[in-house]
Amino acid sequence: MTDQYGAQAAKTAANAMRDKLQVESPIMAMILGSGLGKVAASLESPRKMSYGDIPGFPKVSVVGHAGEATAGKLEGREVLVFSGRPHMYEGNPAAMVAFPVRVLHALGAKVLFLSNAAGGIRRSYRAGDMMVLEDHINLMNQNPLTGPLQDGDDRFPDMSEAYDALLRKVMREAAPELGVTLHEGVYAGLSGPSYETRAEIRMLERLGADAVGMSTVPEVIVARALGMRVAAVSCIANVASGLSNSPVSHSEVLDTTGRVSEEFVKLIRALVRAL
Question: If one looks up domain 3-274 in CATH, what number appears?
Answer without folding.
Answer: 3.40.50.1580
